[in-house]
Each structure stands twice: as structure tokens, then as C-alpha cells.
Design brief:
The protein is of the alpha+beta class and 496 residues long. Helix content is 65%, strand content 10%. The protein has helices spanning 3-22, 27-49, 58-83, 91-114, 120-146, 152-177, 184-205, 212-215, 221-234, 253-274, 278-317, 327-339, 355-362, 364-381, 405-420, 448-464, and strands at residues 345-353, 387-392, 395-401, 423-425, 428-430, 433-441, 469-475, 482-484, 489-490. The strands form two sheets. Strands 1, 2, 3, 6, 7, 8 and 9 form a seven-stranded mixed sheet that branches. A two-stranded antiparallel ribbon has the order 4-5. A hairpin with a 2-residue loop joins β4 (423-425) and β5 (428-430).
Length: 496
């Protein structure tokens, strides 16, 4: 769905939410609430089921199930309101509480797809924060109600909502702090979680400040949060939430702060229960200072390890001469691109013309200078997120996802012109050309090797017609045999 239609969808939901808040508790208000909720759930199911089957679709199916569960809870309560009596704790709570872990699991699955095999540290941090928040929840929410004469369910069920909020917050932190892009879909998902947390917090705090009849009007806002989740699923860039990230995991400063809060929770709660005398305050300050020093030492050790890992990863995944990606990195990133929602994926296969003559005439040092200059120029031509790789010798590959055929032609033309510029070497200038083969993988293509073969064959077709040309090839859907899609283009006739 286009971003304009997504904006219209969110605007329509917000309009219904405002009507629901104004007419809350009335027949028309309830009708608007039910109709809007059903529309959001249907849109969530439609959007998730239209995605290709596989791990990338599972989180969105869980989101659809969670929203449907919440909607059923509202329908049960409305049925009790009209035909029976609404209990303090009832069947509706089962459906409401069930939605929280479903969304939390969906967020964790997104984080695992963004950082496969690299979530153990984040999970430990989230568990520490969850334990600390649970301790505070027990002292301030559950314990005070134990002696008020309420039944077991009336005491525990309301306390489960803040606990579910903590679990939801921990799952949201997995996504927020995991490597990967943080575009509109990510912000929509995190914004929805913040919305849900804010609504539950308002339900727990505002009754002490204002009349509960006004607090109840927060309920329709849950529709806006659900619509934000659906909008993230509908967004063209939703793949960023489930696409593997290339960068190494880095400990975010916020995680260190969360660990500090978790460490200080138990002693702070203990002193709040016993009272803050002079000795207690001194002990609390000493604990806070020691915790700060320990966390600072921990952060310093982690940063040193991150720098060492980054250096080793760069050496393993990049060409030592030019600094661009090597064949292993190209294969890995190309495979993930083809499996993602980003289409089409364009691959340009480059082979330098006249490079052997440079080596023979000026020596290998001059040849290395040409290769580094070409790599630098290619890096300056592409966008952030595109891939420049060296396969070996004088062969390079450029991968540009999401470009139209006309835009790929423009990139190929710029490459011909930039590579043809002379390369200074001492007092001399060396000139090489380049032959480029272009292959475009449409949606549904899953073979990096077939795409490389098609571009490679197109490159040789360009060489056969002379230097300084590019050829666009296409794969036959049944045999993967590359065929000539367009006549060769020289640098002078390429799109500028």
C-alpha cells in the first residue's frame, strides 16, 4: 500500500477514535467502536495473509491474532453491558491479557530476524529489567491490595496488566536496540507499543486524580495503537523489521542505564519499606556509586571487545586492497536482499578494459592504484545501502536494490564515465575502461548465483561489442539462460 493510502487509513481511524471518545458509553459510540475495531482486525488479517509465507509473515500473523483477541474482549464486555452485568474480573480479561504476550512474541521474532544469533545479551538485559519492574509492581500494586478483602482473582488479574506492560516494553526494547534500519515501520511499531503502555499507565494513575468516568474514555485510544501496527504491516518498507542487519551488535547507552536501574531497584524498594534513616541513605548512595563504577568498567570492557570484533569482521568481509566487500560478503548480502521485500534487485558486473596493459607497462603497484581508484569512484556513485564488491582481479560488482530499469541505466552510464577518467600515478596518468553487464532480479527471484551468471554473460556481451559499453540481460524463467535484452550502450549514448 502506498504511503498516502496508509496516511488516509490512519486519519480515518483517528477520526473514529475521536467520535468514540466523545460518544463513549452511548449506543452510537459503541457502534463506531465495534465497526472501527472490526475494520482494523480485517485489515490486519488481509495485510498479513497477503505476505509471502515464511518467517517474515509470522510476526504479522501474531499481531493480527492479538488485535482480534482484544476485539473479542471488547465484544464480550459489550455483550455483558447490554444483556447482563459487567464483572470486575471476567471472561473479557482472558482475551485482553492474551493479546500482550502475542504482540511481545511478534516483536521478539522481528528482533531475532534483524539480529540472528545476537540477542542473548539483549534478552538478559530485558529479563533483569523485567524482574526489577515486577518487584516494584509487587510492592506498589499487588501487596497493598492483599489485605483489603478482595478475592484472589480480583487481586491478581488487575496486577497482571502492568506486568504484561513490562513484558511488552522489554520486547519493544529488543526491536529498538537491535541492529537494523529504523524507518517509518519501526517507528510505527514502537509508537504503538508506547501508546499501549501509556493507556495502561493512565488507567492505573489517573483514577487518583480525576473521575473514573473520564479515565474510561482512554479506552478508544487502543484503536489508534492497533491501527499503527497495521500501518507498519502495510508500509512498503515493512521488510526492515524482519531483514537481517549487517552491522555488528553494539551495546546501546540506554541498556547500561536500564541495567543500573535494575541493580538499584532492590535496595531502593527495601529502604522505602523500612524507612530512610541517615545510615540507610548513606548505604543507598554508596550502592549507587559502586554500581556506577561497575557499569562504567563493564561498558569500557564491552567497547574494547566491540572494536576488536568490528576490526576482525571488516578484515574477514572486505577486500584487503580496495576496502570494498569481498565475495563472501556479497553472496551473504545478496542472498538476504533477494529473500527480503525489497524489489527489484539490480546487479552490475564490471570488468576493467585495458587493465592488463597497465600492469604490463607500469607494474603491479600502478595496477593496485587503478583498482583502489576504481573502488573509491564506485563507492562515491552508489547510495547508502547499495553494495560495492570486488570479486578478484579487475572484476567488481555493484548491487542497487529498489531501482527502476531507467535508474539502473543511469547508474551504468555514470559508472562508464567515472571509471574512464584517468588515474594519476606519479607523473603519469593511466586510463582504463570498463565493460558492464546488468541483470535485474524481479520479485520471486531467490538465486544469487543465477543473477551473477546473467550479469556476467551480459558483461561478456558488452566486451564482444567493444570497450566502454553496458548491456542489460534478463534471465529466462525456466532455464536461467541470460539473453540480450537491449543492444549494447556505449558511455556516450548512456543516460546522463
Amino acid at each position: 500500500m502506498s504511503t498516502k493510502r496508509i496516511a488516509l487509513f490512519l486519519g480515518a481511524v483517528w477520526g473514529a477514535v475521536i467520535v468514540d471518545i466523545v460518544a463513549y458509553g452511548t449506543g452510537p459510540g459503541n457502534a463506531v467502536h465495534v465497526a472501527t475495531y472490526l475494520a482494523i482486525c480485517c485489515t490486519a488479517w488481509r495485510a498479513s495473509l497477503r505476505l509471502p509465507p515464511g518467517p517474515g509473515r509470522r510476526p504479522w500473523l501474531l499481531v493480527a491474532v492479538a488485535l482480534t483477541s482484544w476485539c473479542i474482549g471488547d465484544l464480550v464486555e459489550l455483550g455483558q453491558f447490554y444483556f447482563a452485568e459487567v464483572p470486575g474480573v471476567g471472561v473479557a480479561d482472558i482475551f485482553w491479557l492474551a493479546g500482550y504476550p502475542l504482540i511481545a512474541v511478534a516483536l521478539v521474532q522481528m528482533a531475532r530476524r534483524r539480529a540472528p544469533g545476537r540477542l542473548r545479551g539483549g534478552m538478559l538485559d530485558a529479563m533483569a529489567l523485567t524482574v526489577a519492574a515486577s518487584a516494584a509492581l509487587w510492592q506498589f500494586v499487588v501487596a497493598p491490595t492483599l489485605g483489603l478483602g478482595y478475592g484472589l482473582l480480583d487481586t491478581l488479574v488487575p496486577a497482571l496488566y502492568p506486568l504484561c506492560d513490562v513484558v511488552l516494553l522489554a520486547a519493544a526494547l529488543f526491536v529498538a536496540l537491535s541492529p537494523g534500519a529504523r524507518g517509518v515501520p519501526t517507528r510505527l511499531v514502537l509508537g504503538a507499543v508506547v501508546f499501549f503502555l501509556g493507556i495502561d499507565l493512565g488507567y492505573n494513575i489517573l483514577p487518583f486524580m480525576i473521575d473514573y468516568s473520564l479515565v474510561q474514555r482512554l479506552g478508544p485510544l487502543i484503536l489508534a495503537g492497533g491501527a499503527m501496527l497495521v500501518a507498519a504491516c502495510l508500509h512498503p518498507s515493512r521488510g526492515e523489521l524482519t531483514a537481517g542487519a549487517d552491522r555488528l551488535p553494539v551495546v546501546h547507552p540506554a541498556r547500561v542505564i536500564f541495567l543500573g536501574l535494575a541493580l538499584m531497584t532492590a535496595p531502593t524498594l527495601t529502604l522505602m519499606h523500612k524507612g530512610f534513616g541517615r545510615e540507610e541513605v548513606i548505604a543507598l548512595i554508596a550502592t549507587a556509586v559502586c554500581s556506577t563504577f561497575v557499569l562504567a568498567r563493564f561498558t569500557n570492557a564491552v567497547r574494547e571487545q566491540e572494536r576488536a570484533q568490528a576490526q576482525l569482521a571488516h578484515q574477514a568481509g572486505h577486500d584487503t586492497l580496495t576496502g570494498v566487500a569481498n565475495r563472501a560478503t556479497l553472496d551473504d548480502r545478496l542472498r538476504r536482499l533477494l529473500a527480503s521485500d525489497v524489489h527489484p534487485v539490480s546487479l552490475l558486473y564490471l570488468d576493467l578494459d585495458g587493465f592488463k596493459e597497465v600492469n604490463d607497462r607500469h607494474g603491479h603497484e600502478a595496477g593496485d592504484r587503478v583498482l583502489t581508484a576504481v573502488a573509491d569512484r564506485l563507492g562515491g556513485l552508489v547510495r547508502q545501502g547499495d553494495i560495492v564488491a570486488r570479486l578478484g582481479g579487475d572484476e567488481f560488482v555493484v548491487v542497487c536494490p529498489g531501482l527502476t530499469e531507467a535508474e539502473v541505466a543511469e547508474v551504468a552510464g555514470r559508472i562508464l564515465r567515472e571509471v574512464a577518467r584517468p588515474v594519476p600515478f606519479g607523473v603519469a596518468e593511466m586510463a582504463v575502461g570498463v565493460s558492464v553487464g546488468v541483470a535485474i532480479a524481479a520479485e520471486g527471484s531467490r538465486s544469487p548465483a543465477a543473477l551473477l551468471r546473467a550479469a556476467d554473460a551480459a558483461m561478456y556481451e558488452a566486451k564482444r561489442h567493444g570497450q566502454g559499453r553496458w548491456v542489460l540481460a534478463e534471465q529466462h524463467p525456466a532455464t536461467d539462460v541470460p539473453v540480450l535484452a537491449d543492444p549494447p550502450h556505449s558511455w556516450s549514448s548512456s543516460l546522463r
